Amino acid sequence: MEEGHRSQNENEEESKLDSEQDVKQRVEEQLCECNEIMPESDNEIAGDENSEISWEDIEEERGSSRHKQGSYSETAQMRKRQRLLKELELLLLVKDSKVQKIREELKEYRKRMESLKVQRNKVEEDIQEQQTAGNIAALFRLRALHRRLCEELREEEDLYSNTVMTLQENEHELFKVELEQAKLVRLHEQHKKEEEEYEVQRSLEAKQRLEAHEAASLQAEKRIKAIKTQPMQDIKVQKMEHRKPVENARLHNQKAVQFLKESMARVRQEQAKKELQIREDLEKRMQSILSLKKNIELNQENERAIQLRRKAQAAVKEKEKRKEAMIIESGIAHRFMIYEKHQQENEKRKREFKEQQDTSKAEIMAKILREESNMEKKKRINWALFPEKAKSLDNISGSREPREKLQEYLKNICEDNKFISINEQNEWRVPSPDYEEEATAGQNRLHQVAESTEDEDEESLCHPEFSGLWNHEQKPHKDEPIKKHLGAGTSKMEQEIFARHLEKQRSGIVHKQVAAGREFKGCPFYSKPGVIHFQNFDVGKTYKKRVSLINASYGIAYCKLIGISDHMKDFIEVEFKPPGPLSAGMSCEMTVIFKSMQNKDLEGELMFRAQTGSFAVPLKCTTKKCDLSVDKTFVDFGPHVIGETVSQTINLTNRGAQGTYFEFLRLNFTTSVSKEPRSEQTTSTGNEENNGKDLFDIGHPISNEIKIGQVTKDMIDPFSSIKLPIIFLPTDPGYVQADLELVFFSGAYKNISIKVQAQAIDVPVWVSDPNIDLKICMYDRLYQDAICVHNRASIRHQIKFEVCKELRHHLEFLPKSGYIPAHSSLSFQLKFLPRKSLPEDAKIYFNEETLVLEAPMNIWVTNQIRSIPFMIHAIVTCSDIEIDQQTIDFGPCSIYETVLQTVQLRNRSILSQEFGFVGIPEYVDVQPNDGFGVLLPLESLSLDIMFNAKQAKEYNFELICKSEINRDFTIFCKAVGVLPPLHLSHSRVHFAATALNDTAIVTLHVMNSHTSRNEFTHPVPRIGNGEIAPVGPTSFEFVVPESSYLTIVPAVGTVMPGQKCQVVLMFKPMLSDLEVQKEAVRMLFRAEETRRILEKQELESSAKSEQDSSNKKKPQSKQKDLKEHSSSSLKPQLNTPFKPPDPSDIAVDSDDYNAALASLLRSFKEQFHSFVIPCFIKHGDTTSHKKEGFPPYSIHNTLYLEVNCPTVAPPLIVIPCNKRSTVNFGENAVGKRVLKKVMVQNISQDDLDLQATVLDPGGPFQLLSFLRALQPGETQNLIFSFTPTESKLFYESMEISTAKANISLVLTGYGVAPKVTCSVEKVLDMGYVLANQKRTMTFQLQNATRLHVMFDVKLKSLSYSKYKDQQVLPLFLTSNEIPDHLVGTQNYGGQSVFSVSPIKGCIEAMQTQEFEVTFSPDHENQYYSDVIHVELFDKVSHSIQLKGAAREHLMFVEGGDPIDVPMKSLSILPSYETMDVTDVSQPLKSILLSLKSVKSDNKYTTASREFQVGCIQSTHAAGKKSVEFIIDNPQAVHVQGFAIDPLRAVVEAGTTRTVTVSWTPHSEHDALQIISATVKMSVKGDITENYQIILMPVVVVT
Q: Residue 1440's CB: how many other CB atoms inside 10 A?
């Protein structure tokens, strides 16, 4: 579309602008008329001001005279102002509405920009999702959409910036209109005030006359009233007399209350002092902490500075090495070395001076701060020694804190230092003498400061930091001035009372004012006016001004005048009476009288004191001055024909009260013959060249084209203006420039420079716009423009347009020729219709690459040889819209789905073009914006063409895209409609917002409605116009995309005709393992960073403490080495890089994984995913396919299910958090109960009511806690128990449901039957032990399971059921067999014979536990026994029979058949230790051996038996250590076939010897004959015992 022509909106805007401009012109004309009338009155004011009357008197006289001499001109002027004011109001409304409209447009632009940003962010999120999903087609589409959104956003930002600029311009114009309106309103109000004052004056005079007449009548009335009111006055006098005693009583009561308040105030003061002391202690601690922090920061900065200095030194050394090498090569080493030496010395001096300066600054500052802190401490401690003195006016106005003075002084030193460095850098310049003096003075001052600081440092090193009392003169005691004041005869109590009152008076000067709990801070009184300013005074005159002081505090306040600035006391007088108490908002007045004695400006202040503090009112006295200005400093005459005379004026205005002489001069004059104005560079260079020359040099010729008028020297009066004419007489063609200057005498005002520019033209006919720009044009489109030709001459001229032959078919002027009247203009019409042949016809003027047309044209003037050239510029472009696909084949399309094809539209033009798809069929949709839009220059836009078949047939159609210039672009389309044999009940599923780890379920159906192949009664399933699908069972299969967290049950099935199959779709969103592992790596990295920061801080603090301790011991020269050592020791520990683990290395069951999962669940943001699930269809049953792989499905009959899955953060989480919310009890012994605690937390913003499903009552799991409602952020502990009943894996799930989501807890545990083996099988024989001695043996229990086993060892002899078990018949009466659980003989002393250690404990998994059994009998017996029960998990697992025998002597014999009863006897056997062995014969002990020989085939086998003779090892060292046994007379039994081996032997302590007895019957022995034999054996140890061995042989015949 053409940009060179104006649209209708632009015409409307121009018409509005024209109307506004007309209103502006009328307003400006009327303002000029008002200004012409106003100078007369201004001159009168200026003239009267020179008199001795004050300005206020002048205003009063002027107002009275004006009202007296009111004329018709004033009323006309007033009406004109009112009319002008109304027009300004209208203009103001127009401007205001325009500004509001632009602001609304700005709001719309902001909304669009925000919506575009939201769309862009959403598209970026979709791009990330599609990248993760790997959908390349959607990714390209989204990227194109993202680019388009970015471009639209950029365009909106450009429009927004342009609109802001227009808004600023309109607001500026609005401000101007408001300013003019305010001026007129002020004049109008002033006029109204003057009229009102005149009316008031007249009314006052009338009132005065009335009052004179009414005075007499009033006096008469008063006399009558006095006679009537006399009795009433007597009654009032009596009442007043009665009030006096009442008031006296009230006053006494107030005094008592006042005394009570004073006592309470003293108590409060003491409490306040204590609180102040506590606060001071806290402040001291805080200051020490802050100083420690500052020292740490200073040390860090010093370390950084040292490192940087080292780097700089290394770099300098490298540079020096390179320079030396280059110098040696070049051969000028000697001269360079000398130069380098001088340069190094200079740099060294600079560095030393800078270091001295810095150290002196720091030391001076530290010293002053120390002195200030010491003085503050002294004032706090001895406050009575430092009374506050009233500051003088000079001190108040000019006093500053010493710290500020020090900062100014240091700043001056720094500036001098900069001055010196600049002087050193610019040594090549020739400085002025003053400059050198200032530089030398600055250097001397710096040296003096450095020397003084060095002296102070030396003094501070020699003398103590705080001087003692002995260095000062004795000061009088604080009581001495009190004594002097009271006299010598006063008592101590009177002195204390006087001192107390004096202190109270001092502290009561300034009080804090508190109202409604707020303390007043600020100036208590404000003055009106804020500054007392005596302006434009004359010497010798007296001026008065009234000033109001307004109470700005919260309550009643007093004010008192303290004084005036010292330098103004001779000129200022103040008439001020203290007003007493003033309420808040009340005011008092004072009169300030100024007597001018000298002609100079004065500044000071009036100082007052109030009860809340002091304040001052500024006071100024200024002399008469000149305030000169010109209305313009640049005068542009514009182009004029040679021979004309043009003049312009400059208004010089003096707004000051002092007049001055001025001179209007011309400095220089430049001319240029060229037609183009000279650039700023040439003028600037010319000025630089002429700077050295005299401005008034007359050596070169001066042109007189630009002249100054008659006024060159004159006097300008106060408050007046003068017009200065400037004349331009063009003589030569070209540009003319001149510099003029207004010079004022006696330095009254700075000179004002004025620049003048003009152009002289010798051609009378000219074109206003020699470069006609047609902007951007399209081929075969008509464009028009107007060319205005002007005539400067005084005669008419005939002109004719000439078009070059190359453009005659494309360009035309109407009319081609014409006459221009004198001093007039003529407009011609230009018609431009570019053809497609323009690039070939006008190759010279048209650039095919840039598409720019530059055609030179000429205008011929009669009687003039030279033509008037002008240039036509245009950019010619095409109007084509390129479509990447001319034909689109949608292919087979199901009637239940929509097929999308993307088409790329590209604008080949460099102009934006509107387009739209028209005549679209009902089964086709084009998006976005329904196929309508705008293509930007050279922009490509993607459009989605969606086809939705209505029935099964073949489609052929066309899509027409029209441009705004009515050009058509056609797309040919074809498609095939498909009706599948199956269809879904819902083709789109929207899940509700599902929380992470929650499950959402949706049910839908797959339906088979194909029951007949009759195509005339109903639509039948087919592909296009192909064959009809057969009627019968139809199979389907859903293919769910990976990582979609969707599950379909059943995914494969068969549907019979007329039936439907239910399909369940489940959505369970979860966080992927990779995301959690990456988050775990990030958390590890953050933890490592925090750990390093803490370690670094600890190391720095420890290094700092070590450095401080070493600084106290070592001298200062070794501090740098310590710093370097500390910094070097820190670096290797902290610079080791942290290598984060690979995300895949983090185990899913690790703590890091669980922590990262909890973090992601808490910070999870809402997500939205959309998935498309294809459903493949096949005719027939699924069981008919027996081959591997997928069945042969038909692609054209495929159904698609769109699933929208929004995911939100879970409202409830389980702590500790794991992947599947599993509560794992691990392995537990069967029958043992284990408790586990699980915490749930509400991480949502709402209250949650918890409910849980019921666990299996007969199962091993139980919930022991009650569920309750949780508030946001609240937690609850859930306690579960696990009691396995058998050895297997148990698994059970429980769901905790809320209103928003559900959480499933999985309870798992494994029951394990403990498997523990014992190293002893049933019996543990302890052997023989001497009575009252011990023997220890061990056995082991081995845990063969992966479970820790708790054990408990119990002895049966110590059980409660021991006596109950013994209440039965003896075992030797019931059976010959001895059971394992027998508890035998026990000790007489009551202690247990057997003891076991340990009795309780835990056997770890796959470990062995050793037990120690101790046998300690206290008397002799062979039948000690007990039973050990090993209980595992409160059940007996092993029983071990303990046996042992005890003797009182070393020897023992065991073996043979039992002869006696294995039960303890009721009588106690006598002990051999108490009997005399020699007197009593030892009883004979028997050993019975039964021998069995077997007779078979008349042969006898040998029968053998054994018994043992042993020696007990004693713990006592004394006594015999061996035993000897002898068998007496063995020959008697040898005859009967018995053999004994050995017959004699010695048995060592702790060993046994086996004696074997064998019997071999003779061949003639009778098997039925019973024989027996007896052999004696004596055993010798500590005593001798005799045994008889009874042999009982038996023959068994087989």
A: 21
